[in-house]
């Protein structure tokens, strides 16, 4: 029987077998890298779906960047989504990222004109590499992992009452317009008397750092600016190390002076700095003040015209639990048992950082206060305890 099968028959049965296999394994044959940014589905759309999707894309355009946070053992970093990287679909460079620049030289000789063209390759400058450049800028900003997802839409309101909700919304709007005007300043389109510092002030956990980071990310992603996040205490420690090794501190400060946007988080926190460290800090503020560089400060210390609500201040004078923090060994009447790290309850920003730095900040800074906005974390912790105690 088999000998009677023609070559054509064998070929077509093989063909059928292959088709069967392909239909069984269809899913894995068309499997593409998984989307990690949430912009597209697991599978690449088939030709028909693609047409539909193109129609839909006219109605609703998702213009967010295909960026996600890559988590490895001990590191968090921004990364371009392997499935949505615009480079993969780029017809201009076919995925290489290179741009070919043609130069045409015309030579005149006795026999007439000759054209000679040279192709210069400019690596990684194709428009499709835009997302990769943003990712690089975001990673250079050194945003702490717990704030990496910050954006203007990531604020929680469920723990706020109507008044607090309204205030929070106003704060977010103020910050958004500060970002717009900051971008305009950098691009040279705004009046020079515009404020270019922003100080976010108020209690712990009220959302200051989240709002500052959302702004930094907004300016990096929408305007391709350079930025850097630095914690005040961390910076002081770095300066201390420089001082001990008899170095100038310039290698640390240079980048902080030069970036387009700088966040100094927890300004004033900690209290073991010496004169030299304060002087370096003063240099940093002064340099950014003189160069009109966008600087965002978050702090628990209040400027002169603000005050914490008396009932928020955790005075513990009536029940001394510990006298560890009190230099005299006894709780003093003014601060009770407030630890040094929380001196902001009773000490102003002026008292904490000195007149020189304070007056510069005051002169060129806008202020947004988070007074009376409760801590989300604290409230969630309390709710958890209430649940536990039932
Ligand atoms: Zn994706
Ligand atoms: Zn390209």
Automatic annotation (TrEMBL):
Listed CDD domains: AAA
PANTHER family per UniProt: ATP-BINDING PROTEIN RV3427C IN INSERTION SEQUENCE-RELATED (PTHR30050:SF4), CHROMOSOMAL REPLICATION INITIATOR PROTEIN DNAA (PTHR30050)
One GO molecular-function entry: ATP binding
Pfam families: IstB_IS21 (PF01695)
Signal peptide residue numbers: none
Protein name (Swiss-Prot/TrEMBL): DNA replication protein
Organism: Fluviispira sanaruensis
InterPro entries the UniProt entry points to: IstB_ATP-bd, P-loop_NTPase
Coiled coil: none
Record-level GO BP terms: DNA replication
Entry superkingdom: Bacteria
Record-annotated IstB-like ATP-binding domain positions: 128-301
């Amino acid at each position: 029987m088999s000998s009677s099968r023609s070559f054509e028959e064998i070929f077509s049965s093989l063909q059928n077998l292959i088709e069967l296999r392909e239909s069984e394994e269809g899913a894995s044959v068309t499997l593409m890298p998984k989307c990690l940014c949430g912009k597209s589905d697991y599978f690449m759309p088939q030709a028909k779906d693609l047409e539909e999707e193109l129609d839909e894309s006219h109605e609703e355009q998702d213009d967010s960047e295909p960026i996600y946070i890559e988590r490895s053992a001990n590191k968090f970093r921004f990364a371009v989504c392997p499935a949505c990287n615009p480079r993969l679909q780029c017809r201009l460079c076919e995925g290489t990222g290179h741009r070919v620049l043609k130069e045409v030289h015309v030579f005149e000789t006795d026999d007439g004109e000759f054209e000679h063209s040279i192709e210069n390759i400019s690596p990684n400058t194709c428009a499709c590499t835009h997302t990769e450049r943003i990712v690089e800028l975001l990673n250079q900003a050194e945003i702490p992992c717990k704030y990496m997802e910050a954006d203007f839409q990531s604020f929680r309101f469920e723990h706020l009452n109507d008044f607090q909700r309204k205030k929070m919304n106003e704060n977010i709007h103020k910050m958004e317009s500060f970002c717009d005007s900051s971008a305009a300043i950098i691009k040279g389109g705004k009046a020079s008397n515009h404020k270019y510092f922003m100080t976010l002030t108020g209690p712990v956990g009220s959302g200051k750092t989240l709002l500052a980071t959302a702004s930094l990310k907004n300016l990096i992603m929408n305007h391709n600016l350079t930025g850097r996040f630095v914690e005040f205490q961390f910076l002081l420690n770095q300066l201390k190390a420089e001082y001990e090794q008899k170095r100038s501190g310039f290698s640390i400060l240079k980048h902080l002076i030069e970036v387009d946007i700088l966040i100094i988080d927890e300004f004033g926190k900690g209290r073991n700095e010496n004169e030299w460290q304060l002087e370096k800090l003063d240099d940093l503020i002064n340099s950014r003040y003189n160069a009109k560089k966008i600087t965002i400060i978050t702090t628990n210390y209040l400027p002169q015209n603000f005050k914490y609500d008396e009932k928020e201040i955790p005075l513990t004078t009536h029940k001394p639990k510990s006298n560890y923090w009190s230099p005299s060994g006894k709780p003093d009447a003014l601060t009770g048992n407030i630890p040094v790290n929380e001196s902001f309850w009773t000490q102003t920003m002026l008292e904490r950082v000195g007149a020189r730095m304070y007056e510069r900040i005051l002169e060129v800074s806008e202020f947004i206060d988070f007074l009376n906005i409760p801590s989300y974390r604290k409230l969630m912790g309390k709710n958890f305890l209430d649940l536990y105690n039932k």
